Automatic annotation (TrEMBL):
Keyword annotations: Signal
Signal peptide residue numbers: 1-28
Encoding gene per record: ORF116687
Lineage: Eukaryota, Metazoa, Spiralia, Lophotrochozoa, Mollusca
Pfam families, alphabetized: GBD_ELAPOR1, GBD_ELAPOR1-like_3rd, TNFR_ELAPOR1_6th
Name of the protein this chain belongs to: Tyrosine-protein kinase ephrin type A/B receptor-like domain-containing protein
Family annotation (PANTHER family): MRH DOMAIN-CONTAINING PROTEIN (PTHR22727:SF15), PROTEIN CBG13728 (PTHR22727)
Amino acid sequence: MHNLPSVTSTNCVRHILNLILSLSLVLAVTKEETLQQCHLDDFHYEYTECDINGGRWRVPVPKEPGMCIASSSPGAPVRGKDCNFACNPGEYLDIQGDQECHHCPPGTYSLGGGIRFDEWDELPSGFAVKTEHVTPSSWGSKIQHKENCSRSEWTPRGSYIMSVPGQCPSNLLFSAKLIMAGTLSFEYQYTDPESIFHFVVQNDQCQAVDSDETEKWPEITNEGRWSTIKVNLKTGMNVLQWRTIGALSELIHSSVSPVLIRKIEITGVAYTSECTKCPNGTYSGEGSSFCLLCPADQFSVHGANKCESCKSWEYAEPGSAQCTARPPCTEFDYYEYQKPCNGNGKTQMSFNWIEPRICYENASGSVVLPSDGPLVGCPPCNPGMHKVNASHCDFCETDHYADSDGMCHVCPALTSPNYNIDYKYWNVLPNNVSTHCISAGVDICTNTAGWLPSGDHIKTSFGLGDHNTFLVLLLKIAGFRGSVGTVDGKPIALSTVTFDMELKCKTPCQLLFLSDANGRNAVLQSWEKTSARKSYSHEIFTNESLTLTWAFQPDDFGFGSPEDSEQMLKMQNVAKIFNIKVTNVISGGATMCQSCPEGKTEDGCIPCPDGQYVDPKSQRCESCPLGTVLPRSNAWGKEACKPCGHGLHPVGGRSCRSDCHFTDDMGRVYDFTELDKVRFVSGSRLFTGSGTQYYHGFNISLCNHGTQPLPTCVNNVTSQLVSALLGGKMLNQ
């Protein structure tokens, strides 16, 4: 046996590495021999990152790296379009070809250098939702803490994204990198003034951009109406945030209206190298910057350039991707209404199909449209109105009143009509009453959705195709008699509106009563549960014209179950309004004339002197008792005189004032002259769970001497001064 030479451990390691390297080279050569040569079709073009000169290069890049061997260069890099270049809307940049802009083909659309979000079946890519959990002590003890904040979260609902402001602040976030200065616009609904809706643009360090253009407190919108906000954006990263908070709303109302956003559009982003296909239910022609919605009974699929018609036994709602077989007609596919009086003074109940009709009369099990009811005598005219002919009632002319038989008479000398609005009979809509339907999102109301006269009441009506709607009833009033006045800082009512209502809610529904007396529609009262007939009254303190609104919301804005059984229950939701009476109007109907002790003019009675009322017995102007005032003109009865509060004194018979001095029961005199003006006092700084700062502010005046203004109370969360000083939200209480 021969002895083998010894090998050190270092030599062993080197020997093993050489073997591994040799094996790797063999495998690499073997793989290279099996790969094919690359062709031009194996490459596509991309732009490099922008250089310091604002330019970039177009370079070839393998479509699938490692799948072929580049035998030769597919082409040298070519200087591309500048980084701030963008095509016009309806065009795309052909980076694979001539690097020029071309029209989008039919069935597609493009914003050029922008992006649009108007499909909300799910949260689009790039968006994020962050909801903060706030402890009860942050908002006060009146709100019950709820662990589940899902109802407040921003939630996609098909044609819009929504958030119901609650005790959990919810944020919708999106980051956009702009290659050049651009814009952001969004369409929204925001109807609850007691909730907070805020929009802000932040930089890449989540710091608010120091500009009035990038921080918005959206204006309140009317029920069902959409508004648009547009702001300028800077080049670079922009973090967009939409925020809702509703704790204050929960304190005041038992229900909160949602905030809706249906379209967000951003310009100034990167170029568009290909056009976007139109979504289902839409279509477009060549060079389009948006897609059109397919009308009712037509449909389209993804990327369509036209809509197709449904078969005669099928139907499709606007914006549908397919047709659906028409179901058999049911009792929910027609409505009942009372016909106007005919020339013989007769009326009858009648029935009509809800249009557009989606049911199929010839289907098995379909109901038949009921026949008209029997002819009956028309109801009498409403109080203060007279018959113009056998079928129509109207108010009497100026300086007249209507008796119980509906006949007009001129008021006697030195008297004036006492005008009111008093609607008891609903055969037709009066001239100053209107009804319509407002739909959220892209949904379209059926032709008959609204309120229908039904004899002794007016009731809501809607079809199976009505989703997320407001059924609105409007009463327009020209104004009220008398002048505005206050006693002890409290306004004196010039009028009272009273109505009877009834509500039936098989599923969540809501009836709102609103007034625009303060310049914008504000919710005065809401009802959310089934309620038997009951009366509601509200005092009016202005003498200006106003509009009273009743808005019925049959469903729960997407929170209800989509099941057919739930839909059938929703169809039974109904609101009814019976008699409506508004007193002391300047234009309406009168059933009596009242005395004018001081004489009268074309505008009515000449008012009694300040501090005097009309005595019903003597029909003369009498002075109010000592220490009382009469803040409005032509008031009847001594009870109209109001006593001044402790420490206040009558001034001119119409108002109570303080001389800024007060004497207590022990004879001590207090001088508040230095506190004659309105003072602003702020509370402690508070914080939400995320650290957002806010505080409460109070306008206080301990006395009101001379012509100093009274303190006012407003919801002033948009105060630029306070935001600049403290970066918080001010709520004047």
